[in-house]
């Protein structure tokens, strides 16, 4: 597998994203690729070169910088934008790519579940159409990996490693033409009708992207990788690395901050989490296997699909994730935590709404009132509103369950040599969830909040203070409720005794 990537030129989209960065890190550290062409756009006042330099100077690439001090020479930024026609690539850069590229990894996408439909179509469908067109011009192309999602067909309870074009009410090409003709506003207004049973624009457009590959890939050596929810690194290059608040990571972060106290969740449902480094490893394995199959098979068949989910023999429930996440949030506190981390798991939406109003909304208004009195900028109500919107989007995924066929993924793993399995590990049956959740909490503290050993003492001291306030408040509430119950009970008994004696007296006088 390593020999396959030796002296190869790889073109990657989405390289500045969470998964994309780890793929690049793995390519640089584990293989001897000749060059990585990274599609990247200038952002604000920062050039593509400056953005790339900043990415490579981050903690994720620390080991690579030690092994390959010349790593900057191994990556060539390609100015472009997935929202533009032909990816916004200049004719000169396009000629370089079509002449030299051996492997394509398309991981660019918008992962915002509530992205306006027009934007989601352009980014998740229009971009893959442009990449397919570019790949067809590549004279040296040996392998193409498209990163999709295991939720692309989430309206089905069981999802095999195959295409499901019949569940979409419109083809990808028709959807793109419609968006081009109608424009953003009208397209977005039609979202509800077009989505059908799909819960959001992300899953819908990912399904369209797969349909586009089925109809337009032609003879390209292409495969599709479908992961579930991607979370922090399991082991490589360091445990717990993360750089975003998406999905389950955002919920764990909010719990650690003390702002998430009520969670609508079906605790017994299996959580579908996979480490990002495992994803990078299997993507490289997919690229290798696709090139092998292209050399062996004489007749072109449908692109192979790889579902990547937790192993049936080693699953963990959402309830356990929530409990362990809260426990480890207390183990690795933040120095700016708002409240002592605790979490109430609720099985019904109505009760969750009531408790969220009591434990999220009301406290946020009270905190903003205190901030206003201190002359500081209010922010808690807005934070609470954003948090509730985020949780609403996640509800579909943490209250439903799916099963997935994984024959291709298992065969891929078994086809690797022991050395390859060790170097490119993606064996989900060997994941220690307890340790992994510990590492996730540590990574949130170290890489997202950027606490260090110097601020740890401050964070723990603050947590102890918040714990005292939290427990004192609970004691006051329990005492108050006890007194209320005692008072009401005493009053009722007193009234009953009074009424009994009163009517008894009346009866005596009546006689």
UniProtKB/TrEMBL annotation:
Gene Ontology terms, MF aspect: alcohol-forming long-chain fatty acyl-CoA reductase activity; alcohol-forming very long-chain fatty acyl-CoA reductase activity
Enzyme class per UniProt: oxidoreductase
Location(s) in or outside the cell: Membrane
All copies of domain Fatty acyl-CoA reductase C-terminal, residue ranges: 359-451
GO biological process, any: long-chain fatty-acyl-CoA metabolic process
UniProt xrefs under SUPFAM superfamilies: NAD(P)-binding Rossmann-fold domains (SSF51735)
Similarity comment: Belongs to the fatty acyl-CoA reductase family.
Name of the protein: Fatty acyl-CoA reductase
Species, as recorded: Bactrocera latifrons
Phylogenetic placement of the source organism: Eukaryota, Metazoa, Ecdysozoa, Arthropoda, Hexapoda
């Amino acid at each position: 597998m390593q020999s396959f990537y030796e002296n190869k030129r790889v073109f990657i989209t989405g390289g500045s994203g969470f998964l994309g960065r780890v793929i690049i890190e793995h390519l640089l550290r584990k293989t001897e690729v000749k060059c990585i062409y990274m599609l990247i756009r200038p952002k604000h006042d920062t050039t593509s070169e400056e953005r790339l330099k900043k990415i490579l100077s981050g903690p994720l690439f620390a080991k690579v910088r030690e092994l390959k001090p010349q790593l900057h020479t191994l990556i060539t930024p390609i100015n472009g934008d997935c929202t533009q026609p032909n990816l916004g690539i200049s004719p000169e850069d396009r000629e370089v790519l079509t002449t030299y590229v051996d492997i394509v990894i398309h991981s660019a996408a918008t992962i915002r579940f509530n992205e306006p439909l027009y934007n989601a179509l352009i980014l998740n469908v229009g971009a893959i159409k442009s990449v397919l067109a570019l790949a067809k011009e590549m004279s040296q192309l040996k392998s193409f990996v498209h990163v999709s999602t295991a939720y692309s067909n989430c309206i089905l309870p069981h999802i095999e490693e195959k295409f499901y074009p019949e569940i979409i009410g419109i083809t990808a090409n028709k959807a793109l033409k419609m968006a081009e003709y109608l424009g953003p506003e009208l397209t977005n207004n039609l979202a509800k009708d077009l989505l059908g049973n799909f819960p959001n624009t992300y899953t819908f457009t990912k399904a369209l992207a797969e349909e586009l590959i089925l109809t337009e890939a032609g003879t390209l050596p292409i495969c599709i990788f479908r992961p579930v929810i991607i979370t922090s690194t399991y082991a490589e290059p360091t445990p717990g690395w993360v750089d975003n608040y998406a999905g389950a990571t955002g919920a764990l972060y909010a719990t650690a901050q003390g702002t998430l106290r009520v969670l609508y969740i079906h605790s017994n449902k299996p959580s579908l989490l996979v480490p990002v480094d495992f994803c990078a490893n299997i993507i490289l394995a997919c690229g290798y296997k696709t090139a092998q199959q292209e050399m062996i098979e004489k007749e072109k068949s449908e692109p192979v699909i790889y579902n990547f989910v937790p192993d049936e023999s080693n699953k963990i429930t959402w309830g356990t994730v929530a409990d362990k996440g809260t426990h480890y949030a207390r183990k690795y506190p933040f120095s700016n935590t708002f409240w002592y981390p605790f979490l109430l798991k609720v099985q019904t939406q109505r009760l969750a709404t009531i408790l969220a109003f009591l434990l999220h909304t009301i406290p946020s208004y009270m905190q903003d009132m205190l901030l206003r009195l201190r002359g500081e900028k209010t922010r808690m109500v807005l934070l609470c509103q954003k948090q509730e919107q985020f949780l609403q989007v996640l509800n579909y995924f943490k209250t439903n369950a799916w099963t997935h066929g994984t024959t291709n993924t298992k065969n891929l793993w078994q086809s690797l040599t022991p050395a390859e399995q060790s170097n490119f590990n993606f064996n989900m049956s060997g994941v220690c969830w307890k340790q992994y959740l510990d590492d996730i909490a540590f990574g949130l503290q170290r890489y997202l909040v950027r606490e260090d050993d110097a601020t740890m003492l401050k964070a723990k001291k603050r947590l102890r203070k918040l714990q005292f306030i939290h427990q004192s408040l609970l004691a006051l509430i329990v005492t108050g409720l006890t007194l209320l119950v005692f008072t009401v009970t005493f009053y009722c008994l007193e009234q009953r005794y009074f009424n009994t004696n009163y009517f008894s007296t009346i009866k005596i006088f009546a006689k």
